[in-house]
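User: Could you go from structure to sequence for me? I need the amino acid at each position, not a summary. Structure tokens:
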């Protein structure tokens, strides 16, 4: 710009000077001025184009992928999680488990729209957002997401609602077969409000852990550790099932459990690859990592089972797959494919120990191993994300990435999640116990919750 001004002043001076010298000199100066003006105009056009590109613009491909991902997460909850848990229950409690998952999903998605989304993504607080979007106020079909500017806000709201719903539903596996249905629902509402929302805001809404630099691509802390700790606390407070440790409380249908696990795996592509927020290369990376970590964890689990128990089992394969899915969740978009294989290998053995050796040490009747799989797998995945995100290990971290520094950040995020969720869960269970009681009577438990809580049976002989 300074050059342009200088040339223009020179041209004017020459034009006023007159004479042959002026005529001979004016032409090249005017030509230089013209070139300078053209350069400035081109620069201005480039800046204007860049500004236009930076403005939020709806992308139909991204929107289609996020709508698909939302449906996939619904699939992994109902029917996926419901059938996975239902098959693990005894036949007399099959419907009670299905009912708990189904109704929790329904309830939480409504609460998410009323106040959950606003408190999670509506502000910049340390632990909570704001009430700016309560009742989805101010959001229209034309509103683009502040977090994902190429998709409608309504799509982002719907996608995140499925995460909140499945996290609350995961917990029921820990105290299945002996808890009151009304207690499950009241606990889910309290826990969603005081544990899930603040954890999601701290990690994804710009709160405490986000400011600290914690990496959690799709919910290692927010979903799995959070739910795993809530399940473990619940297993302690609700108490052990009648006959636990003395009778064989075996799953009634491993066929349904396998179907449920398969639907979980399919749905998890929406969970992990959808968390990229766009139909792009990171979604592809998360997609292949979800295949590789899960497959490796499945093989690792059954190998460990064969070595220590003599035979690989279908239940072990299904559990190993879920363990791999859990572990890769926080890492999916941050690590490379080979890193996901190593992560799956570690997670398979770790989760096998979580449901066997660790479970015996803890002494809790975690009926469907919510903590052993989701808690342990989530902790392993969250911490190792700080290792395999390193660019020299195939991750997407910056060139100056420090494994030691990031692992410490990841460890702090795990500790915060365990403490926050543990305290909130303890208080929420106590409130529910005082108000309506947590556990059904001994007679109702022996007869089965399908009949005593819902007046129906899953099977007629």
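Assistant: Here is the amino acid at each position, in order:
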């Amino acid at each position: 710009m300074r050059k342009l001004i200088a040339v223009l002043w020179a041209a004017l001076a020459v034009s006023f000077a007159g004479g042959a010298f002026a005529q001979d000199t004016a032409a090249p100066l005017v030509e230089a001025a013209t070139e300078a003006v053209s350069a400035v105009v081109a620069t201005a056009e480039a800046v204007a184009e860049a500004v236009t590109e930076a403005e939020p613009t709806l992308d139909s491909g991204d929107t289609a992928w996020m709508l698909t991902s939302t449906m996939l997460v619904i699939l992994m909850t109902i029917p996926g999680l419901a059938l996975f848990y239902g098959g693990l229950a005894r036949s007399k409690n099959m419907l009670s488990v299905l009912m708990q998952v189904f109704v929790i999903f329904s309830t939480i998605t409504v609460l998410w729209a009323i106040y959950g989304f606003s408190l999670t993504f509506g502000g910049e607080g340390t632990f909570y957002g704001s009430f700016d979007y309560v009742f989805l106020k101010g959001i229209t079909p034309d509103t683009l997401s502040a977090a994902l500017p190429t998709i409608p806000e309504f799509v982002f709201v719907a996608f995140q609602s499925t995460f909140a719903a499945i996290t609350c539903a995961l917990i029921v596996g820990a105290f299945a077969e002996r808890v009151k249905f009304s207690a499950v629902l009241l606990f889910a509402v309290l826990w969603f409000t005081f544990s899930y929302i603040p954890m999601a805001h701290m990690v994804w809404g710009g709160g405490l852990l986000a400011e600290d630099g914690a990496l959690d691509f799709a919910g290692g802390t927010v979903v799995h550790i959070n739910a795993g700790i809530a399940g473990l606390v619940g297993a302690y407070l609700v108490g052990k099932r009648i006959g636990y440790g003395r009778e064989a409380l075996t799953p009634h249908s491993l066929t349904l459990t396998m179907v449920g696990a398969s639907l979980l795996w399919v749905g998890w592509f929406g969970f992990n690859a959808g968390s990229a927020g766009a139909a792009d290369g990171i979604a592809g990376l998360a997609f292949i990592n979800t295949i590789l970590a899960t497959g490796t964890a499945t093989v690792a689990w059954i190998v460990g089972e064969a070595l220590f128990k003599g035979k690989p089992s279908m239940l072990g394969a299904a559990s190993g797959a879920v363990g791999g899915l859990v572990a890769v969740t926080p890492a999916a978009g941050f690590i490379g494919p080979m890193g996901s294989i190593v992560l799956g290998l570690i997670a398979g053995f770790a989760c096998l120990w979580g449901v066997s050796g660790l479970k015996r040490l803890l002494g809790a009747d975690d009926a469907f191993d919510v903590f052993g799989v989701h808690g342990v797998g989530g902790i392993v995945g969250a911490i190792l994300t700080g290792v395999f995100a390193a660019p020299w290990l195939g991750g997407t971290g910056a060139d100056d990435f420090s494994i030691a520094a990031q692992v410490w950040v990841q460890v702090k995020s795990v500790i915060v999640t365990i403490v926050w969720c543990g305290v909130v869960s303890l208080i929420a269970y106590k409130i529910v116990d005082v108000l309506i009681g947590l556990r059904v009577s001994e007679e109702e438990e022996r007869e089965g919750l399908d009949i005593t809580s819902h007046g129906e049976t899953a099977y007629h002989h």
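One structural detail worth keeping in mind: The CA atoms of residues 118 and 137 lie 9 Å apart.
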